[in-house]
Amino acid sequence: MRFLPVNLTTILVELPGLQETRALHTSLQSCPVDGIEEMIPAARTLLVHFDPESVSAEALATELRQRDLSLISAGSDCQIEIPVCYDGVDLDNIAQLTGFSVEEVIRRHKESEFTVAFCGFAPGFSYLNGGDPALFVPRHQTPRTRIPAGSVAMAGPFSGIYPQSSPGGWQLIGRTSAKMWDTNRTPSALLQPGYRVKFVQVDDLETAGVNTTPAIEHDDPPASASGSINRPEETPVLRQTAGHARPHFKVLTAPIPALFQDLGRPGQANQGVSASGVLDRSAFRAANRIVGNPAGTGCLELTLGGFSFQSCSQAVIGCTGAPCPITIEDVKGRTTKITETHRPMSLEPGDVVTFGHPRTGMRTYLAVRGGFEISPVLGSVSTDTLAAVGPIPVTAGSVLTLRNTREGLSSVSIHEAPALTLPTADDVVTLDVVLGPRTDWFTQQGLNAFTQQRWKVTAESSRTGIRLSGNVSIERKDDKAELPSEGTVTGAIQVAHNGQPVLFLADHPLTGGYPVIGAVAEHHLDLTGQLPVNTMVQFRAIGPWSEIQPHSDMAHTA
User: 70-84, pLDDT tens digit by residue?
Assistant: First the structure.
């Protein structure tokens, strides 16, 4: 058992294999350790988030080392039968790789019984193990840019089903009509860790159903999550009450769609869902304080300005983050220019508010007193752009209903100030990083390239991650080595085969298959969400890389 640093609040436990990983995960679920906040199991690792005020990394490692890994976790009584039409585009390739006929590949796959080992990659995506070892095939060297939703796929010792269209490198053996992810179902993911899965060959998916033994009883669907990405035909609509419109904003322009965000949805890792959430937490909290909202009230996250809306009622707003020049035009055409943010602003019916482009930073936060009327998805109003979970993006024509409530409100604040000095595209930004967990996968020259050169923020960046470009690639010790998928964190810096790093932001995949050389320290995460394209980044390791050492028995008993 190895204990590897991830960041200041997370460690990665490396184990011999899947059985030991499941045993440790099960042990910690049945007998928890104070301070552990969330765990993400994978093929042979367990990512553990912890509260450093409750337990240190060394004390946590000491406790985990003492757990009995010989116990095999009991599987679930639930078996799911998944209808499959075996017509995958890679069937011939799988047959060639295994030396079997196509018919024999299908027979072996459908006669296997799988178990959900863990969830990751995307909401509702489950890694299924237990298949026929003769069918273990490698993933494609070059991933496809789009795999259709419902694709049944294989890679190494695992099978899986893509819940939604996404990039992927697994071999496609068939397709299913089973809905793997549905936020109107509880739990939203059809396949949960420990469930047994059987694939049933069908010729017609339209008439095939999913059989569950014993039957799973789902809660009644929740009230419609207005604008949920899970239901793309919906748009935020104005709700009418007693013959008149409720207070609302009408969006006039949104060159880049705005997103509802709050502090995210932690605790959903067992369904393959990362926390997501706002990128600049200090700015988000300040915006809510300005208008007197409770701390976690959802705001709009605006990227690079250009956003405008008309207020159809009286309202009080606050803006923080990237400082956009703001113009307010009233119904008589009189214009007020706001150059100082972090102050409450009063709006009257008919006022048109226009955000210019920020001079520094990337993202501006718009809060309204009382909050927006938007239904949460899995306990949060955050839009996860990678997982397609949460409210739909806000575009021109959207009508945003305001909550007409005084509950939980406090006085507005006129004493807020920016917590960060935000960069311009010409600046060099130094980010503190914690080396690990896979720093030892890289040569000393590679580590020097990582920390000694400046990396350019490219235009291929989003809420999922920032692609960086440098003149010198980060060299691996063994470029052909493959890393089994393992949990990742916001701020993780993953290095692909080309030696160029990607810095994960809040909408990162829950698990990843490229080695992570380091992670941005928590105190600089807000800054990473405000890096404009062409900014230069310098990584500064806050200490050398080393494995976390459990306390010695003598020190532990003392």
Answer: 876 666 789 999 999
Q: 């109003």: which residue's tokens?
A: 381
- Provide the pLDDT for residue 169: 86
Q: Are 392 and 470 members of one domain?
A: no
Q: What is the number of structural domains in the chain?
A: 3
From 138-142, 163-167, 459-463, the region with the lowest mean pLDDT: 138-142
Q: Which two structure tokens, joined as six digits, stand for 401?
A: 């209903």
Locate 64 and state its tokens.
Answer: 């985990």
Closest CA to 438 of 482, 391, 469, 399: 482
Sign of CA dihedral 310, 314, 320, 324: positive
What is the rounded CA–CA span in Å between residue 163 and residue 170? 14
Question: Which CA distances in Å does 15 have to 28, 100, 517?
Answer: 15, 33, 19
pLDDT reported for residue 183:
84
- Residues 411, 290: Cα–Cα separation, whole Å: 8
Q: Are residues 343 and 278 in the same domain?
A: yes
With respect to residue 502, please indicate whether it lies within any of the assigned structural domains: yes
Q: Say yes or no: 386 and 282 in one domain.
A: yes
Band of pLDDT at residue 211, cut at 50, 70 and 90 = low
147 and 287 inside one domain: no
Q: Does one domain contain both 396 and 270?
A: yes
Same domain for 265 and 167, yes or no, is: no
Residue 154 included in any domain: yes
pLDDT for 206: 80
In DSSP notation, 239-300 reads PEETTEEPSEEEEEE-SS-BEEE-S--TT-GGGT------S-HHHHHHHHHHHT--TT--EE
Tens-digit pLDDT profile for residues 382-434: 999 988 899 999 999 999 999 988 889 999 999 999 999 999 999 999 999 99
Q: Are 272 and 508 in contact (CB under 8 A)?
A: no
Domain annotation covers residue 549: no
- In a domain? residue 358: yes
Q: Are strands 79-84 and 196-201 parallel, antiparallel or unpaired?
A: parallel
Give the domain extent around 469.
Answer: 428-541
